[in-house]
Every structure is written in C-alpha cells, then in structure tokens.
Amino acid sequence: MYIGSIGLGIPQHHVQQSKVKQFVSQMFRGNRRVEKYLSVFNHAKISERQFARPMDWYKKEYSFSESNAIYIEEAIQLSLKAVDQCMERTIRHSLQEKSFPYEAVDLIIFVSSTGIATPSLDTAIINERPFREDIIRMPLWGLGCAGGAMGLARANEWLRANPTKNALVICCELCSLTFQQQDMSVSNIVGTAIFGDGVAATLLIGENSAYTSYLPNRALTIQHAASFTKKHTTNVMGWHLGENGLEVIFSKKIPSLISDLWKNHMEKFLASIGIVQDKVDAFIAHPGGKKVLEEMEHACNIPYEKLAYSYEVLKNHGNMSSATVMYVLEKWLYDVSLKTNHQKYGLLSALGPGFSSELLSLKWVE
Predict the structure, then answer these.
(1) pLDDT value at position 204?
(2) Looking at the annotation, which residues are catalytic?
(3) CATH number of 2-214
(4) Has this prediction a pTM greater than 0.85?
(5) Looking at the predicted structure, is the pLDDT value of residue 338 above 80?
(6) Three-state SS at 88
C-alpha cells in the first residue's frame, strides 16, 4: 500500500503565539490562577498557529450549537481545500498530466473530534466533488490526537484486503472552536496555549491498483501497524461535554506515560517487525506538545534531528489534534521524495484518549 500524496487545508487566520497569550491575559485579567499559568505560552515552542475565526470572534461566549454550526461550515470548506490539493499533488511526482481522479477513490475515512455532525461531514465532501455514489464511508470520531494514525492504520488494513482499490483519509480538527471563556481550569489554559486548527487529506493507493502510475519512482509505503490501549486511563485525555460545549481534559501524567506506555509499545513493535531503533531514519511523531517530544527524546534516546519535522510542525501550527501527524508526514514525504535523500525507514506515532498509542512502520521502496 502506497502513500500517494497529502494535501493541507490551512485556515486563513494566522496568529502569533504572543498575540494569543495577550488575548488570554486580557480575557482572564485579574484571575490569579490563570495568570500563574501564562508562562506556558512562552515555553510551548510554538511560534504561530492558524484559527478558523479571527481573534475578535473568540471574545464572545457562544453556545455549543453556535460554535458547532461554525465547525460544520469551516470543516467542509477546509476539507475540500485539503482534498483538492491532495488530488492535484499527484501530478508533481509522476508522469501523469492530470490530477488523481476523484472517481478512483473507493474508500473515504473522515476523522474528527472537535465537532459533531450527522450525517458525518464526508457526505458533504462527496456531494461537492465527483466521487462515486458507491464509495465506502468510514467516519471515525472521538479518537483525538491519535485519530490521524488510526485513520491511516484502518485504511492500510482495508487496502491490504482490497489491493486494487484506493482510499482517502481526511483529518479535520478545529480545536480553537472549543475554547471556553468561563473555564478557569489548567487544562483549558494549556489547551489554549497549544491547540490550533487544520485539515489534512492523504491519498492511499493499493498495491495492485490501476493507478500506481501516479506514484513517483521512489514511493512511501505503510508496512505494519500496531495499537495499544492502557486500561483504566480514560481520565488522562479527552473531552467533557459541558453546558457550553467541549471542555478539554489533560492529565499531568501524559509526559510520564511516554517513558512507560509509549517506550514499551515502540520497543515491542520494532522488535516484532525486526527493525532496530537505530535503523529508523525519522520519527513521524504527533507533537502533542513540547514536553511530549522532549520526553520521547530523553526516555527513548531519540536524536533531535529524527524528530525535527515534529518540532517544525509544532512551531508553525501548534497541536491540531488528529491532523497534526499528517502535517509531519507531509513534511517528510515531500522532503525525501523531492531531494536526494537515502532515508529508508520511518516510524509514525500518535497518542490519544483511551489512553492509547498507535504506531505505523513506513518504508521507502523503488
């Protein structure tokens, strides 16, 4: 199974981290609890983020119905932007003179956790573009930051069972719309300091697909995948549905779980597929936050340069939940394929509510 291309749906409102800190300081002026944690904005290693709405929009308090209506509107437009770019980008790396046909997509997976819609928003995307009416739909909700990796894993499994087919994975997260003006919790402040908005669409081409000609001479494949969910850790990360919408839940345990849960899962996974950690050229890790990446470095002896793409995405976009790891993968995919680069193996990873870990091994093939 091959990764054909990745397209991004980046919101138009780019905001510097310093401006977000100033905004929060003004919104909660005089609240000592909030002021105590404002330093998290300075230490997050984030330069700027993108939001679905201009900063003035967030000054007003909205009902869940109002913010969710904005989510649906923006999610559809940004998803279409990401999908269109994804289809067009296949031209860049192949001998084809036209973009990948929408009609050739057999499965669409739509991943999101920051808004609610029934029918799921993949139906709106299908309506707006010439996808076939017999396309298979697989909406995934509630996976949080692990959703991007899980979406790729499910697509990989489906394509291995259907090697002549093609799949599209869309990760759409508008985290900023969950901002709670009345929530003075540490979790809300931390979430406001790191979360951003973004959409990514990834095209996956089956091994025996009639459309492998759209692939470059050197293509990226998904080889293996593994999931792990630690029992009795549902309170580590997630959403609490309050009167005004989704309220973020963050536990202080998250960084410490890297040296326990993630390290053990990663080591067992690599051993099971016969790859030594030193042979992994790049760790395509979901940058949940600065502390998460630093703990990966220290606990697992991963050199900074092997996590460079994750740090770069965190700096320029923040944490966009499920979509973030796709942004990291996009950096690595086009950096390696467009340059003379001899990298061979990658390990894609993401942690999410559950508390869960998802791993995928990636390999470049001729």
Answers:
(1) 98
(2) 145
(3) 3.40.47.10
(4) yes
(5) no
(6) helix
